Each structure stands twice: as structure tokens, then as C-alpha cells.
């Protein structure tokens, strides 16, 4: 399901969803998670749940064990099977009121949830050496469960009925190509040392921020109370919530661009230019200011209606838009959509249209290339009482905000909103028992990086609250991407990496996976996912299985200064520290503080198996050591495991 006011799950769709979910439950006792070829978590009690008739006694049988529960007034039931060792295949049976549902070929092993944004979503068929990887993918004990992308304004108890019903499948060349590469290669590597079945539940969404994966209570704790209130209003009153959001956007615009006018009002006439008749992407209009323009532009047109037309039920159709828009009619916000490409169709609230001239204004935000209204003019129309009224008038435009600034989006936006991916994709998984979570996300939060750490902690708490308090979390630190730095720098990419490092370091049930050396400066989606899977599996072997190996290369433990040098001591070193291609450790900086310009590159030399010495340049006593601190850093400090030391910032003692 798409995003925006017209695509997010609203109250009418929610009612249909509840009815559809109830209908599906009436036919099956077990929840959708329990299907043929499933994997259940070993050596822990396993919740099993579903739907029966109110008051019915439900008995669940599995691997010679059983458990019972009584359905509540809504027919919901939940039982808990005793812990079972790895093995199978088994049959899972649920019985109630003379009905029996059986699920066959069920294995017991370790279950892993895999979530995040596009680098977790990236499919096996797009990785390096994909043809060979697909051909050799025959792993009957690795099972896959793919959750479709679906945004919901309210927490769901089962998967979206207008999507294909998700199912469990064993890994074959036919099933693996569309699955998460990071998730699959992790399990394939892990099976080499942990010889038990692996169940992979994948739910990710390219471009998503971490906020859309958090629960509403966690978001309130993090200061998003007003946004949660707006999302909850949207469930029952989407039009009212939309107007509230539109006013909030107007307030944001006035605050950030106080001299730029109020373009959504017809009275704002300054600075508008006439758009070409053919329309299309604004880069093609011949305006030098629009060549290569990324950012927010304002578009406007008018349409005349009779009094009778203005009283009718109506919608606005605009064709495809790149990338995001918020749209007003006569100064009233009527709709917004974040998704690139889909044709816009917004219902117009009663009382917005008027007899005579009506002004339609769009704020269109484009992040990369070919922005604006992309469809032909015949796609632009009002539909009044199901009759088309073409928007034949001229369009005008003016530039709003240049650059990919943090333009706000409504709380119900799938990618940049709050809770809606959690509600539509994670909540339906329910309390399905799991060993751990693989999390690869953060690229979309680099505009406000200092917020990331508390939100990552909140995400960990949310998953542990549903999947089990002791589940482990493996976090992939952001890979190298972007221009090479010739001077010390500090930006959102580096800060998010540091937030990830600190959160993991403070959590004994978490592991960090370093990827700065397997990224791609020109591609935010590096294709070396088999190596990423190997590193994820190594982290799991340490964090989840207690192997006496370092989880992910050398880790900076302490920095001490004095006598014109700073010595950095590392822990988790396998063998000894090594520098590749030079006897100098490249990538270190010493900083006099946090201020811009206070850092300088310095040479490092390995002086013992776990210590690097830095010579202090001509600066006051340094306060911080940074390493690999850039979008696409070049760093050469490794240990004998072949794994790199990752980016860090620590104080000098």
C-alpha cells in the first residue's frame, strides 16, 4: 500500500481490514505466522495464537507437547508451548469446537527478524555474483517469510488483506531472488557453525526513517506526543487531521522562510512564472534556475466552477508527481503524498470548492532529478459528481526551498511519518518468538542525526517487548557512501554511525557490524552483501552463541594523552593490529573540541598488538580522537581476523 492521505490505511479501510481479518480467522484457528514450512524458536517457550469462537477451548499440539487456551469475547486466544530443542519436521495442530487445523513441515531452530530500509531490502538477485548465488541456493533448513510493505495508521493484528498472504518457503533458486540479501547471506553463513534450522522474517522499506518503525508509546517518550495525537486523529477523522497537518506545514514554512510569502494563498502573487504548456519535469522547462534543481517548488493553477458544481462531491486528480507533494485548494490543505510516481487523487472536503475561480496550489518536493508533475495534461482534472472538469488553465510556478532540507511530512507518511510501518508490518508478526533482530537503517535519519541514538534504543525496547526480553540485536553501521574527504569533516552520516556505535556498546545483548570498507562512494546500495552476511553471522556467533571471538574487528577502548602523543588502546583484537598498504595507520584525527575546524589529520603507528600511537600536531591539548570520520573514509587499521576497526569518537583522558 502506498503513502499519503489517500493511500495510508484510513478509518474506512481499517474497518474493512478488521472485517476481512475476522473472516480469515473464522476459517483458520491459527494466525498467519503459523503455516507449512515455518520455523519455531528452539529452547524457549513459544507463544501460539489465533482466532476461534468466543469462549471456545483451543488445544495446541506440537512435538509431543500440548497447551490450551480459552478464546476471549472477541474470539482471540493465545497458548504457550513448552520449550522444544532444535529438530523436525513436526506437525502443529490446533483443535477447537470439532475443528482441526494442521500445519506441516514445521522445523524448530532459530528465528531472526530482519528490518530496516533499502540496504536490508536489497534483494539477492542484485548482489555481486548474483547468477552463481541464485544457482547454488538450495538450503532446505533455511526458511523465508516475506512481509509486504504496508503502512497503517493503527496497529494491525494480522497482515493486510489486500496484499498476497505471506507464507513460509524453503530456500531454493526460485524462492531466494526476491528476498533480502543481507538476511539470507547471514543465515547461510551462520549455518556453517550453528547447525540448526534458521527462520528469517523480513520486513523492511527502502527510504524509511526509524520513526516509522517505532511504537506510539515509545514515540511519546521521545517527544513525539503531538505527532502521535495527530496520527490517532487521522484514524477516525482523516480530513480533520489533514487540515491540522496542513496548518502545521504552513507554520513550518513561515518559521523557516519568513520572507517567502504564503504561496498556498491566492493573494500571494509575487515571483510566479508561467510554466510551459507541455509541463513535464521542471528541469526541461528551459529555466536556468531549474536546471538540476532539487528541493521544494510551488505550482499553481485555477479552475472555474458553477455554483451547482461547487456543491457537488468532488476529487482532484493530478497524475504522477515526483517526489512528494502537499496540495491546497482555495488555501485549504486537501492531500499529501510522499511516494514518487503514483498518480495523485485527493478527495475534496465539503465546502472547499466555491462558485467562480478556484485556486489549486501544490508544494512539490523532489530529492533527485526530474521533479514536478510528470503526467500529460489530460490527467489533470477535477472530478465533480463523477464528471471530469479538465484543468485547462495555465500553470505557474516559483522556487521555494533549494536542497534536500528536512521538509516535514505528515505523521501518517509511510517513510517519513511515525509508527505506520510498525503498525502495518511488525505488529502483525505479533509475539512470534525469535532469537534476534538484524537492523540495517539510518541513511534516512542523517538530516537530524543526534536524535538517532535514543530512537535506536527505543526500537530495541519495542522489539524486545513483543519478541522476548532477551532477544539480541545486530546493528549494521552505515556503510561508506559519498565524496572522499581531503579535510576533517563532521556531518549527519558520521554522527549516525557514532550514535549506532554508542548504543550498541551500552547494550550487552547487541552487536555492531562495521561496513565502512565494503561500501561504495558512488552507490548508497553496496552489492557486497555476501560479505555483510558473513560479518553479521560472526557478530551473532559472539553475541547470541557466546563464541570467544571478537564480534566485528578492533574496538577503541581508551585514549590517553601526554608528552606530545596520544595512545589509543583497542579491545576485541584478534591476534594483533595491522595496517594495510602502509606502516602508518590512516584515518585518525585529533580534535581540540567539537567546533568546526578544531580537528586535524594525524599519523598513527601501531606500537603494540593493541595500541596505536598518535603524534599531537601544533594544537592545544587534544580533547577527542576520531577515526574513519567521513562519508567515505579511507582507513587501513585491521586485525588478523581481516576485519577493520570501525569509526569512533572518544575523549582523550
TrEMBL record:
<dbReference type="GO" id="GO:0005975">
    <property type="term" value="P:carbohydrate metabolic process"/>
</dbReference>
<dbReference type="InterPro" id="IPR008979">
    <property type="entry name" value="Galactose-bd-like_sf"/>
</dbReference>
<dbReference type="InterPro" id="IPR036514">
    <property type="entry name" value="SGNH_hydro_sf"/>
</dbReference>
<dbReference type="GO" id="GO:0001681">
    <property type="term" value="F:sialate O-acetylesterase activity"/>
</dbReference>
<dbReference type="InterPro" id="IPR005181">
    <property type="entry name" value="SASA"/>
</dbReference>
<keyword id="KW-0732">Signal</keyword>
<keyword id="KW-0378">Hydrolase</keyword>
<feature type="domain" description="Sialate O-acetylesterase">
    <location>
        <begin position="109"/>
        <end position="232"/>
    </location>
</feature>
<feature type="signal peptide">
    <location>
        <begin position="1"/>
        <end position="26"/>
    </location>
</feature>
<dbReference type="Pfam" id="PF03629">
    <property type="entry name" value="SASA"/>
</dbReference>
<dbReference type="InterPro" id="IPR039329">
    <property type="entry name" value="SIAE"/>
</dbReference>
<feature type="domain" description="Sialate O-acetylesterase">
    <location>
        <begin position="433"/>
        <end position="540"/>
    </location>
</feature>
<dbReference type="InterPro" id="IPR013783">
    <property type="entry name" value="Ig-like_fold"/>
</dbReference>
<protein>
    <submittedName>
        <fullName>9-O-acetylesterase</fullName>
    </submittedName>
</protein>
